[in-house]
Amino acid sequence: MEILSGLSLAEIEQITDNLHASKFRARQIHNWIYLKSVKNIDEMTDLSVKFRDELKKVSLVTDVKIKVKQVSSDGTIKYLIEYPDGECVETVLMRFDNRANLTACVSSQIGCAVNCSFCATGKCGFIRNLTYKEIIEQVLTIQRDTGLKVTNIVFMGQGEPLLNLDNVLKAMEIFNENFQIGARRLTVSTSGIVPQIYKLAENDMQSTLAISLHAPNHEIRKKIMPIENKYDMKELKTALKKYVDKTGRRITVEYLLIKDLNDSADAAKELAEYLSDIKCNINLIPYNPTAKNDYQRPSNNSIQKFKYLLEHSGKKVTVRLERGADIDAACGQLRGKVD
Ligand code: SAH
Ligand code: SF4
Q: Cα(189)–Cα(337) distance, rounded to whole angstroms?
């Protein structure tokens, strides 16, 4: 059986050719899958019943299942998706009341090898990479279930996207071409895998690169992100500057705020100094609790103070809105299983 989700137009044409149907049928099927997000072949109502029956004999819309669906009081929806091999992954749909955007937060791996101290995903270790089709299925699952069209995609779910770069780039190409989501509406977040940042620079990536920096200096970063021992902040900075030079794109720097660890006035000043020659916006993420540690979120007062100090450097600073915390769907809370 061919799984239609994730196929390119050319691949769908091979199926219609084998069934001696015209190429126009392939285009119709392609639209039903990516733009109208049907759940099964019978919903493809502009195909004849006879042709649908033939198509059903050789293909299926999808082979993934929604294992659990949770809806937060703020409208965020979290799905636990099961692939045919039994592995599960989480994907989150966020809506913001004041905007028409529907943002999918997708996972790129099952588990994660990077093992940051503050993150629930790293806790279970690395299990395997997702294929580009499995990444795409997350967005299609959301679209099929809600009947809505996703407008923005962030690679901020489980896993380190730059350690599965080929599949992530291929998925981005398909989001662009098949889903008609512009490159600027895609964001890839990384803990800082330096050689792969050079690769993205060479590729002249036009999507947004987000860097999980989370610390103002080597000593603090080393304590919370083991990746700092492999690629330190100095090397990271050289790579980021190269990326900005080559692509012309402004990067997003993500900075997790943890009480008494990296939220002092000195930390804000040191961070501003580190970022002074990098073209970037800064996104502050107040820590979301996970079972993994006893870190705490700073008070709103100290979050605002930190923001204010950073703004002095002339950079644009935003504080990330917390979404779906009541269903453990906020940043860093995805584990890929239910209790
Ligand atoms: N592996 C990639 C992308 C997934 S994580 C990365 O690390 O960038 C998406 C964002 O959530 C990252 O910035 C990550 O550092 C942050 N995050 C992880 N744990 C968190 C927590 N407990 N509270 C808030 N944000 C967290
Ligand atoms: Fe992996 Fe990102 Fe979590 Fe770190 S924060 S363990 S890189 S998913």
A: 22
User: Please, are residues 85 and 128 in contact by the beta-carbon 8 Å criterion?
Assistant: no
**CB-CB contact of 205 with 187 (8 Å):** no
Angle between helices 9-18 and 49-58 (to 10 degrees): 110
List the domains of the chain with CATH numbers: 2-60 (1.10.150.530), 65-327 (3.20.20.70)
Contact 141, 155 (CB under 8 A): no
Residue 115's identity, in one-letter code, is N
Q: Which ligand is nearest to the CA of 122?
A: 2
pTM over 0.70: yes
Q: H or E segment at 186?
A: strand 186-190
Instruction: Give, to the nearest 10 degrees, the angle between helix 300-311 and helix 265-275.
Output: 40
Closest residue CA from atom 8 of ligand 2: 159
Please give the structure tokens belonging to residue 45.
């109502």
- Ligand 2 in contact with 116 (CB < 6 A)? yes
Ligand 1 nearest atom to the CA of residue 333, by list position:
22
- Which residue has the CA at smallest separation from atom 4 of ligand 2? 116
Q: What is the pLDDT of residues 44-63, one digit of tens each?
A: 999 999 999 999 999 999 99
Query: Which positions are catalytic?
Result: 90, 331
pLDDT range class, residue 322, cuts 50, 70, 90: confident
Tell me the average pLDDT across 186-213. Answer: 96
End-to-end CA, the chain: 33
What angle is formed at CA 186 by the lines to CA 105 and CA 167, rounded to 5 degrees?
A: 80
